[in-house]
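Box 3.1 A note on notation
Throughout this textbook, protein chains are presented in two layers. The first layer is the amino acid sequence; the second is a token string describing backbone geometry. Keep the layers aligned when reading.
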Amino acid sequence: MAASPRSVWQWLGCALVLALVGSAHADVLELDNGQRVTGDLKETTADKIVVEIQGRLVSYERARVRAIYLTPPTSGTAAEAPPPSPAGALAALKKLQAFTAQVNESRVPIEKYLKAAPVDSALQPAIADALALHTFAVKVWESRLQNSASASAENGRSPIIDKCPALKKVVAGYPAPTTQENAWRRGTALEFEIPAIWACAGEKVSEAEVAAKAQAPAGR
């Protein structure tokens, strides 16, 4: 049975959020009914997500999880936090590698749909923009990690910026990316706007869901 656009986007959103996870005090699962569950992420598979809540392992069907977010510590100060460790960094990199592979797999059904969808459909551009924004978030994160001037400049020239009002506002104070340096400056500024990119992608997903309901046959 083929995955629906909604379930595919729920899966992709979770995977991308998880791909950018380092270490955190707690994780927040947002379920398909809007409920949020706070705990420590323990396991993710194609079928389920397991979190530890007050010492007890709780499993949720992946289809029920709309997104996964991180929350900062609710108490203590920065001075009390343990120093960063190589082990923690390596664990985060392994998680990033694993979920990046899963994200790439998630692109396949989405891109197949985009190729087959009618060009004049309101659903097709919304899904295309959402996919582009999620992909852009990964590229921005990677350029920040690599500290690559050429990658930052490429991001600064990305046409997807125009699809996100929050990003357009960020780069409005910078010169047009007509030179490598101007593009680099814009791209560097965007490296601190990953939450805004996710928010814009979420808005596009919402647009796609509205369009999908409008196209659905009556009674379904």
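Residues 86-116 form the longest helix (31 residues). Helices lie at 5-19, 86-116, 123-146, 149-156, 165-171, 180-190, 194-215.
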